[in-house]
Write a structure and sequence with these properties.
- This protein is an alpha+beta fold.
- The protein is about 35% helix and about 30% strand.
- It has helices at about 25-30, 40-55, 95-100, 105-110, 140-155, 185-195, 200-205, 210-215, 240-250, 250-260, 280-285, and strands spanning about 5-10, 15-25, 60-70, 75-80, 85-95, 120-125, 130-135, 160-165, 170-175, 220-225, 230, 265, 275.
- It is elongated and about 70 Å long.
- The chain is built from 11 helices and 13 strands.
- The chain has a 6-stranded mixed beta sheet.
- It has 2 domains: about 5-230, 3-Layer(bab) Sandwich (Hsp33 domain), CATH 3.55.30; about 240-290, CBS domain Like (Alpha-Beta Complex).
- It binds zinc ion.
- Zinc ion binds near residues 234, 267, 269, 270 and 272.
């Protein structure tokens, strides 16, 4: 059986925390709704692992949304993960342009040059305003890019190691907690060096993140916490699609009805199809339609 687990940990006696994640079935499920080319699939896998690691330390109910936008073959890649580690992903890309790139193509090659590409990270609490931080695409990897974001936007020194491939999707993060003193410096330097030296294969050497943590911090006292289970779950619903169609407008809907005799909306995250008969589609714009009632 393949595993989906996230294990938080702390380095004992030091202000260093971390988490290690392994997600195989869940990542596959999240990436199943599109036929992603291998290079894009790898980047999305790394983004899934990274976003789940970051969402595991959210202090509120809500979601973290990591969005890569560029002018390269991949124009958009989005990964969302909520406080309960339910995640979803989608992307938009140019199939012909991507076909010319190798499976191990760099992030910059996929998203385009640093001038046009950026990574936006949004924190979207169920209650309260959305917060968004943006970093330019100056680093070569998803891990380096997120380390840069965390250092500049969150003032949080972090090290990330990520892997996504045939061996599985996995990642590990360590963070130096704010306010940590000189006595924690040694522990932090040890932890960040351990991650910097970690070969990707070590991340998928075991299905169990606890084993990976033990191997990475061999000889150190590390306290691991109860494993959590990341899972694929989409947030699309009849109500959200109703709302999207109202925003698209009556003219759009009438044009679709003229062409197809119905309106079909496919969720870009999970691939679910929402089919509207002419009656149901037009009811969205009828007086009282704003309440979403239809039969
Ligand atoms: Zn969906």
């Amino acid at each position: 059986m393949r595993s989906d687990a996230l294990v938080p940990f702390v380095v004992e006696g030091a202000a260093v925390r971390g988490a290690c994640v392994r997600m195989d079935d869940a990542a596959q499920a999240a990436l199943a709704s599109h036929d992603y080319p291998p290079a894009l699939r790898r980047i999305l896998g790394e983004l899934l692992a990274a976003t789940t690691l970051l969402a595991a330390s959210l202090k509120f109910r809500g979601s973290m949304i990591v969005q890569l936008a560029g002018r390269g073959p991949v124009s958009l890649a989005v990964v969302e993960c909520d406080h309960a580690l339910a995640f979803r992903a989608t992307a938009q890309w140019d199939r012909d342009a991507l076909a010319g790139l190798p499976p191990d193509a760099s992030l910059a090659a996929l998203a385009g040059d640093a001038k046009g590409a950026r990574l936006a990270i949004s924190l979207d609490p169920e209650e309260g305003p959305l917060y968004q931080g943006i970093v330019a695409l100056e680093s070569g990897s998803v891990a380096a890019l997120l380390e840069h974001y965390l250092a500049t936007s969150e003032q949080l020194e972090s090290r990330l190691a990520l892997i996504a491939g045939d061996g599985g999707v996995a990642g590990i993060i360590v963070q130096r907690l704010p306010g940590s003193g000189d006595e924690d410096r040694v522990a932090w330097e040890y932890a960040s060096a351990a991650l910097a030296a970690l070969p990707g294969a070590a991340l998928v050497a075991s299905d169990d993140p606890t084993d990976v943590i033990a191997a990475t911090f061999a000889g150190r006292d590390v306290r691991v916490f109860r494993p959590r289970t990341p899972r694929f779950a989409c947030r699309c619903s009849d109500a959200r699609v109703d709302q999207a169609l109202r925003i698209a407008g009556r003219d759009e809907v009438e044009a679709a009805l003229r062409d197809d005799g119905k309106v079909v909306v496919t969720c870009e995250y999970c691939g679910k199809r929402y089919v509207y008969s002419p009656e149901r589609a037009r009811a969205l714009f009828a007086s009282g339609g704003a309440t979403g009632t239809h039969h």
